[in-house]
C-alpha cells in the first residue's frame, strides 16, 4: 500500500521533472517508467517489508495456548503470512515452508503489557519535560525494539504521543510491538499529567496549549466542552482508547494523591465522545472516591486502583469493570529525589498494591497485567521480571494467562477503533502469529519470562521473525527460518 503510493508519488514527481527539462518532451508525453527506472529515483529510506518466507512451520513444539493452564502434547504449527493457519498433532506437509524444529520446546503467545508508556519509558523526567522532541522519539524507538525483544509483542499505550512511533513500527521503519495508543493523557489544571511550572499560570481559555499539550503527551481540559474537544483530538489522531486522569498521581508535582480531579460531567463528556466513536475510556485512579465517580460516569477500565477499599472492589465486580493494577518494583521510586513529595507519594501507592491484588482475587475482578514503568531504561528491562515477581498473588499459569489472552480480551474493548482487529494473546488457528518459542516451561518456571535473552529462542510478531537463535545451531531442519532483519 505504502510502496504503491510512494511509487505513484515518485512517478508524478519524476514526470513533472521531465516537464522542466526544456526538451520537446512535454510532461504528458513522457514515456511510462518501469519499476526499475523508478527504483533509481525512490528515496533510499523507503521502508522495505522484511524478507520473510511465505510460510513458517514450527515442528515438535508443546503449546501454551494463552488460556489453558497446561501444555499440549507434541504439535506442529503452520504460520502463513501473519496468521496461524494450522495446528496439528500430525505432520504438516508444506513444501517451501521455512521449518523451525522446536525440539520439544514451548510455543506460547507473545506477551502483552496493558499499561505501557512507549514515549515515557526511556528518558528521565527532566529530558522528557525539557528535551528536544526528536531526541525523545529516538529514545522511544530504541525502547520499543527492546520491548519487542523481551517478548512483548503488543502494548496498550496509556499516555503519550505514540502515534508516529506506532506508524513507523507498522511500516517496518523501526522494530517494536503493536501499539494500542490512548494518545495524550487528558487531565485538569493541576491534575496528574499537568507538568507546567508556576510561571505558566494563569492559562487563558483558548490560549495555545502548554509544551506537553503541544507535544501531544498530555492535554489539559477544564470543562466538559474542553474534555470533549481534547477527547476528539485524540480520536482524530488515531486513539484506540481514551485515557483520563481522574485523581492525583505520583509524578505530577501539583496533584495530591487524594484529589478528585474531573467532575462527573467532565468524565461523562469524554465517555460520550469515546462511545460515539465506538471505543472506551480508561481512567488513572487510586482512591475509592475517584474510582467510584468514574464508574458512575461510564468508565470501563480503572488503571491502578492502589488505594481503593473493599466496597469499591465489590462495586467493580458488580458492574463488570476491568482493573489494571501495577506491581511496581520498589526501585521505581528512585526516579524521584529522596525526601521529595513525589517519592512519598510513590511509597503510599507502592504499599497499597498488596491490598489491591488481594481484593482483585477475592472479588474475581477482570484483572490485566501492566507495568507502567516510567523514566528508566534500566527498569524497563525488568518488564518480564515484573510479571514474574507477582507470584505472591498469582500462580505462574494465572500470570501467563493474564499477560496473554486476558490482556487481549481487554484490547478488544477498543471495538471498531481496534487497530489490529483479530485474535491476539492466543495460539489458535486463525489468530495473529505473535509467538514465542521458549527454552523451558514457563508454566512451571515463570522466571523464564524474566530472562528473555536466554529463554526466548524465537520471537515472531505478525508472522515476522525478529529473533531466531536456533538458526545455524544445527537444530533447524529443511529451509532455515532466519530472523528477518
Ligand atoms: Zn501510567
Could you walk me through the main structural features you see in this protein, from its secondary elements to its overall organization?
It is a single chain. Mean pLDDT is 88; it is low at 1-30 and 474-480. This protein has helices at residues 2-19, 35-41, 125-130, 133-149, 163-170, 211-215, 224-237, 264-276, 288-296, 310-319, 341-362, 377-380, 383-388, 396-411, 452-455; strands spanning 55-63, 74-80, 83-88, 98-101, 106-109, 111-116, 152-157, 178-181, 185-187, 218-220, 242-245, 281-287, 301-307, 322-324, 366-367, 435-438, 456-461, 464-468. Among the domains are: 2-41, no CATH class; 111-393, Alpha-Beta Barrel (TIM Barrel), CATH 3.20.20.140. α8 links the parallel β11 (242-245) and β12. 33% of the residues lie in helices and 19% in strands. With 485 residues, the protein is an alpha/beta fold. The strands form 4 sheets. Strands 1, 2, 3, 4, 5, 16, 17 and 18 form an 8-stranded mixed beta sheet that branches. Strands 11-12-13-14-15 form a 5-stranded parallel beta sheet. A 3-stranded parallel beta sheet has the order 6-7-8. α7 (224-237) runs parallel beside α8. Zinc ion is lined by residues 115, 117, 158-159, 372.
Amino acid at each position: 500500500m505504502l510502496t504503491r503510493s510512494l511509487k505513484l508519488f515518485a512517478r508524478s514527481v519524476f514526470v513533472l521533472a521531465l516537464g522542466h527539462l526544456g526538451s520537446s518532451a512535454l510532461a504528458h508525453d513522457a514515456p511510462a517508467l518501469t519499476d526499475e527506472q523508478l527504483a533509481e529515483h525512490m528515496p533510499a529510506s523507503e521502508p522495505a517489508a522484511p524478507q520473510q518466507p511465505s510460510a513458517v512451520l514450527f515442528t515438535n513444539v508443546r503449546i501454551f495456548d494463552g488460556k489453558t493452564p497446561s501444555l499440549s502434547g507434541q504439535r506442529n504449527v503452520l504460520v502463513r503470512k501473519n496468521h496461524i493457519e494450522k495446528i496439528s498433532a500430525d505432520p504438516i506437509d508444506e513444501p517451501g515452508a521455512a521449518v523451525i524444529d522446536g525440539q520439544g520446546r514451548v510455543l506460547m503467545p507473545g506477551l502483552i503489557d496493558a499499561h505501557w508508556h512507549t514515549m515515557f519509558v526511556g528518558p528521565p523526567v527532566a529530558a522528557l519535560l525539557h528535551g528536544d522532541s526528536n531526541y525523545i522519539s529516538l529514545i522511544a524507538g530504541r525502547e520499543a525494539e527492546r520491548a519487542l525483544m523481551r517478548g512483548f509483542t503488543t502494548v496498550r499505550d496509556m499516555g503519550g504521543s505514540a502515534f508516529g512511533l506506532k506508524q513507523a513500527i507498522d511500516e517496518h521503519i523501526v522494530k517494536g510491538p503493536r501499539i494500542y495508543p490512548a494518545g495524550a493523557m487528558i487531565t485538569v489544571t493541576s491534575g496528574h499529567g499537568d507538568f507546567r511550572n508556576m510561571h505558566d499560570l494563569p492559562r487563558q481559555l483558548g490560549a495555545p496549549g502548554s509544551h506537553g499539550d503541544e507535544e501531544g503527551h498530555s492535554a489539559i481540559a477544564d470543562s466538559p466542552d474542553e474534555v470533549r474537544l481534547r477527547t476528539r483530538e485524540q480520536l482524530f489522531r488515531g486513539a484506540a482508547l481514551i485515557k483520563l486522569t481522574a485523581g492525583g498521581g505520583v509524578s505530577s508535582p501539583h496533584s495530591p494523591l487524594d484529589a478528585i480531579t474531573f467532575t462527573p460531567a467532565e468524565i461523562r463528556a469524554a465517555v460520550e465522545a469515546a462511545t460515539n466513536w465506538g471505543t472506551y475510556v480508561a481512567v488513572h485512579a487510586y482512591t475509592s472516591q475517584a474510582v467510584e465517580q468514574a464508574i458512575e460516569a461510564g468508565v470501563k477500565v480503572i488503571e491502578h486502583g492502589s488505594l481503593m477499599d473493599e466496597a469499591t472492589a465489590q462495586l467493580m465486580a458488580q458492574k463488570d469493570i476491568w482493573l489494571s493494577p501495577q506491581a511496581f518494583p520498589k526501585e521505581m521510586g528512585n526516579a524521584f529525589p529522596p525526601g521529595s513529595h513525589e517519592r512519598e507519594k510513590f511509597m503510599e501507592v507502592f504499599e497499597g498494591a498488596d491490598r489491591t491484588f488481594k481484593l482483585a482475587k477475592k472479588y474475581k475482578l477482570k484483572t490485566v497485567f501492566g507495568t507502567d514503568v516510567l523514566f528508566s531504561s534500566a527498569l524497563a528491562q525488568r518488564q518480564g521480571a515484573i510479571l514474574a515477581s507477582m507470584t505472591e498473588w498469582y500462580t505462574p499459569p494465572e500470570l501467563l494467562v493474564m499477560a496473554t489472552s486476558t490482556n487481549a480480551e481487554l484490547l478488544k474493548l477498543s471495538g471498531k477503533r481496534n487497530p489490529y482487529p483479530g485474535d491476539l494473546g492466543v495460539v489458535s488457528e486463525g489468530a495473529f502469529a505473535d509467538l514465542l518459542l521458549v527454552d523451558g516451561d514457563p508454566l512451571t518456571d515463570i522466571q523464564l519470562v524474566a530472562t528473555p535473552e536466554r529463554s526466548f529462542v524465537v520471537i515472531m510478531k505478525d508472522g515476522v521473525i525478529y529473533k531466531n537463535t536456533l538458526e545455524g545451531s544445527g537444530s533447524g531442519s529443511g529451509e532455515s527460518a532466519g530472523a528477518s532483519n
